[in-house]
Structures are given as structure tokens and as C-alpha cells.
Amino acid sequence: MKRLVSGIKPTGELTIGNYIGAIKQFIEYQEKYESYIFVADMHALTVHNDPKELKKRIKDIVALYLACGIDPEKTTIFIQSENMYHANLSWILECNTMMGEASRMIQYKEKSKKGDTTVGLFTYPILMAADILLYDADVVPTGIDQKQHVELARDIAERFNHKYGETFKLPEPLIDDETSKIYDLQDPTKKMSKSDDSDKGCIFLLDDVESARKKIMSAVTDSDNKIHYDKENKPGISNLLVIYSSITSLSIKEAEEKFKDKNYGEFKKAVADEVCKFLFELQEKYNEILSSSEIDAYLDKSNEKVRKIASEKVKDTFEKVGLGR
Predict the structure, then answer these.
(1) Domain 3-175+293-321, CATH 3.40.1010.10 — does that match?
(2) Of 106, 30, 42, which is closest to residue 68 (Cα–Cα)?
(3) Which of 135, 176, 235, 241 has the most CB atoms around its CB within 10 Å?
(4) Would you call 111 a catalytic residue per the annotation?
(5) In CATH terms, are 3-175+293-321 and 209-288 the same topology?
(6) Is 234 one of the annotated active-site residues of the chain?
(7) Quick one: pLDDT at residue 198?
(8) What is the pLDDT of residues 30-55, one digit of tens each?
(9) pTM score, whole prediction
(10) DSSP conformation letters of 90-122
(11) pLDDT category of residue 12 using cuts at 50, 70 and 90
């Protein structure tokens, strides 16, 4: 079975967009791949976080992963910072990465235009490469906007293998289905983001259900009053159709057929009903998991497993570059 590696940064509360665009895919992938999913908490440090809030979000993400249906018997969930080998390998890879390569990373180029940036923002794609290469990932789920980072990991791995001998597997990007992207309810031309300053267009997985209902009922649409998928001309309605389709497991075409004679108000109410039902059931499971000792016991077990894999890879890498006695 091929190995899959992926992670989510705890830089904000998880949204329904994270569920539909990533977590739901992880649940499907765990049937086909040996899956390693981590909380990328070290990556969160490229921006300032309140330490208490960050610690809470890290545990929240693990609880939500489990509540959403990621099976701990099929998927290894772990916390990046609890395995020191990520940082160890990242330094070796930094010393085998060219400045030009790192400076061409799109997110660094975009964010550095906004003002002062930390060195961490410049080097974090190399830490991301370490996250991937440490576990000999065959595939890495990624959006088209993040594909560049997987390509960088491949380039670094190939260079290292050429210099020091076969060490790292070259990962392949597993490109997300564009129709699984969820957009902001108030501005359906931009992706729903857990780190947005305003939460009016964003449904969080831990939102109060009535708050989520209000957000859907006030979602921006258009004046056409026809319910069909047309991302370019009807982005708001198309976004709601994707949300409804994903939550109910109906196809877009089936959802279009169901609402062909309905008005926007009736459609929004139906979407809100399904989302609120989903959130209520999810939050019940989340609270049950969070109040038990299940998370800590599971993380202790998974950390032991990933440290063993990672230590062997780092030991091999250190030996090849000549470190140690």
C-alpha cells in the first residue's frame, strides 16, 4: 500500500471548507493509502500566535479529525512538534536548497510584499519538504496552489540522492478536486479561510448551529433566482450547491434537480438545515472525545510509531552527510 502524508496548520479554527476540501478526502484516502496526517504546529509559528490559543487549537484539530471520521486504526495522526526529527531533517535539507529555489515560492513572494517577514516564512517550504521526505511519502494531497511545494520537495530529494546516494523517495502530488473547494459566503470569489479577519463568510466546525444558519441565510447570491452550478456566473449559488452536495453525498446534478423549482430562500434553508444537522452531530462526537483520555493515549501511541520511522531516516541522512562521530 502506498504511503500518504499531509498536515493542517492550527492557525485558526477549522472550517466547513477544511472538512469538505481536506478532511473528507482524508477519510476516503485512508481506504487506499497508508495515511500519516499531522497537525503542522511548527508551521504555525511563521505568524504570531497566542501560545494558549495555539495549544488549544492543536488538541482541537486532533479531536475534530477523529470526530469527523478519520479512523485511528487506519490513519496515524500525530503532532509535528512532538517529533524533533522534522526540524533535524529540515536543517540538512536547507543546506541542500538553493536560495533561488526558496525565493521563488509563491506564498513567500506574496506575503513578503506586505512588510517585514521572518526567516521562518522563507524556509518553511523546506520544513514542509522534511515533513514529506521523512516518511518516504508516495503521495501528498495538495491544491494546485500548493503543488509548487511538493515539486520543491522532489527537487531537494533528487539533488540529495544524486550527491549522497539513494535516500529519499520522490513524492507525487495528489491534486485536490477543484469542485471540493469551498468559498467565502460573503465573497464567493475567494476561498473560505480559517485565518480570515472576518468570520461572517466562514462556517467553523465549532460554530454555534444557529450562528451557522444565519451565515448561510445571509450568503451572497445573485438576482437570477435559478439554482444551477455555474462557478463563473453564479459563484454564490455554486458554492452553496457544493456545500449541500458534499454534506448530503448527493451529486451536483442531483442537487440541481432537487431544487430546480425552488427559490433561493427555500434552497438556503435546505442547505442550512443539512449543515446544522452535520455540525450538531459532529460537535457531540468532538465533545465526547475531548472530555475523554482517548486523545492523549492515541497520540502517545502514534508519536512512538512516527519517531521510530523518522529516527531511522535521520540517522541514515546524518551518516551520509558525515555528521556525528
Answers:
(1) no
(2) 30
(3) 241
(4) yes
(5) no
(6) no
(7) 66
(8) 999 999 999 999 999 988 899 999 99
(9) 0.90
(10) HHHHHTTS-HHHHHT-HHHHHHHTTS---HHHH
(11) confident
**Catalytic pick from 9, 24, 194, 313?**
194
CA distance 68 to 62: 10
| 265 pLDDT higher than 90 | yes
Catalytic residue among 191, 258, 262, 285: 191
Beta bridge partners of 3: 34
Question: CA dihedral defined by 179, 183, 186, 190, rounded to 10 degrees?
Answer: -120
Q: Which three cell numbers stand for residue 17?
A: 471548507
Choose, from 111, 169, 231, 262, the residue flagged as catalytic. Answer: 111
DSSP 268-312: HHHHHHHHHHHHHHHHHHHHHHHTSSHHHHHHHHHHHHHHHHHHH
Chain segment 146-155, per-residue pLDDT in tens: 789 999 999 9
The confidence score (pLDDT) of residue 196 equals 62
Query: For the domain 209-288, what is the CATH superfamily, name and number?
Result: Tyrosyl-Transfer RNA Synthetase (1.10.240.10)
Question: Which uninterrupted H or E stretch holds 7?
Answer: strand 3-8
**How does pLDDT run across 199-226, given as a tens digit for each residue?**
889 999 999 999 999 999 999 999 888 9
194 classed as catalytic: yes
pLDDT at 178 > cutoff 80: no
